[in-house]
Amino acid sequence: MANEQHTIEDVSFKIFRVRDNQSLLFSGEIKDNDLSEFVKQPMVKEAVQNFIKQIEYEWSKFKTCKGENMNANAKGLQAYKENQNTLNDKGAKVAETHPIKQIIKPIRFLLPNAKKGEKYEAIIKTDGDEIKKIENVKFAEKEDIGLFFNEEKQLVSGIPNKSGEFKFNVYYRTEANVTRGGEGMLIINPDPRDLWQNNEPDQNLPYPKSHTDSKIINENNICIVAASRRGRSHAHVGSFRDDDFFVGYNDGWSVLVVADGAGSAKLSRIGSKEASHAVGVLISERLKGTSGNELSILISRWDGEKQNVQQKIYSLFQEAIKNAVDTIETTSTRSYSAQSRDMATTLLAVIARKIGDKVFVASFWVGDGAIAAYSPNSEVKIKVLGVPDEGEYAGQTRFLDRAILQDGDGFNKRIKIGLLSDVKAIFLMTDGVSDPKFETDNGLNDPVRWDALWQEIEPILSDEKPDKKLLEWLDFWSPGNHDDRTIAIQWFDKYHGNN
């Protein structure tokens, strides 16, 4: 089909459009450019391709059947005309040997669509009423496609190992005990993972960034691991990873930061790196030596000094976030001749320290994603350390900018502090992880979902190279969730001597 991509998208557009600019998929209005973007999605295009192929197959069968019936009628009618004027005994015999052929409706055999790699089991459907039993089904492919016919159960079953259109021949016995044959077409849809391409960015693009990054800190009973990888959607279009992170440890203080560059910002991959490192490095410096020790002493007298601790944390985050905003504004202008919004990014940060048998945690949150302390042995298993910023539409969020610094009380509300008991782990993650793992409205507060996540993560943390294993884990499959993924974890098993 010439210009197939354009044709498929055009067909898709016409299928989903109705009069008065309304869409069959939505109750309200939708713009043409929105629908155009929708029909370009790989899964929509693939579905329409299969639809077109099925229609083409049925059309071909219809034309073949119609042609055969018309030819049969034409021969019968011709014989009738040649003999109608001389109908006698001899003519009657001629007419008997040249009857008008009865139009016979072809028997159709149908199988529901299959999906590559998924278990399949189906009964062949047919509109033929003369079939007593199907004796065998053979696929026309020379190579095995993973499907087999069970005569006893009258089932086609197996696990398809290919995708595409596959003709099959059906051998059946009629009520008159005559063996006949027919054919059908089975469509095996591809595994969605096969539709995603892994393309490298244009070598001429400036400011390259690695597709993956990871780090581990394992010293003085401190266990921190972080990993980040490019999402399938970025790999498919050949763009860079927009996520980034910073993790550090010094003088008893842990600092963890994750950032997710805005997909609409052309230099967000730089913004996420600059922001996370600007915050992480400044906080690490401020908590060194005397300043960090003085804050620790205040925290140890928590009941009497909580307000003082709170004020110091507010000032520390104010300075750190200002440093990040200044860095983005300066870097974008001086180094890249761009505007600060071209480096738009979310930012989630945590400061943590072990104080006696408890863990002090302070967090700052701008954008989506998640920060939480996980305590499976406590009455309250999960403490979400902030509130994600959500826009009016799906995929919208808030990004780091100077207006956040000028928000006063609004800025302080983005900060959470606590002295927590029985903490097993602290998590920070971008929405590439939080969306598939906590996709319901109240998912972040659901202890069942956190228990499930921990069951996946805990074996990784016991590995000799947990950072590399975590990087592999980030490649998990979740339909509809293909963004960059970044996660940072500090866990406390070694503090408590637990397994």
Mean pLDDT: 84
Distance between the termini: 61 Å
* Continuous helix count: 15
The tally of beta strands, per DSSP, is 22
SS strand fraction = 25-35%
Q: Which stretches of 5+ consecutive residues score pLDDT under 50?
A: 1-5, 18-28, 83-92, 98-103, 495-499
Rg calculated over all Cα atoms: 33 Å
Q: Identify the overall geometry.
A: elongated
The assigned structural class equals alpha+beta
What's the main sheet like?
A: 6 strands, mixed
Helix content: 25-40%
Descriptive overview:
This protein has 499 residues and is of the alpha+beta class. The chain is built from 15 helices and 22 strands. The protein has helices at residues 4-16, 32-39, 42-83, 89-97, 192-195, 232-237, 268-286, 289-300, 302-334, 402-405, 409-413, 431-437, 447-461, 466-473, 493-496, and strands spanning 17-18, 22-23, 109-110, 114-115, 120-123, 125-126, 131-139, 147-150, 155-158, 164-174, 179-189, 212-219, 222-229, 243-250, 253-260, 347-355, 358-366, 370-374, 382-384, 415-421, 425-429, 485-491. The model is unreliable at 1-5, 18-28, 83-92, 98-103 and 495-499 (pLDDT under 50).
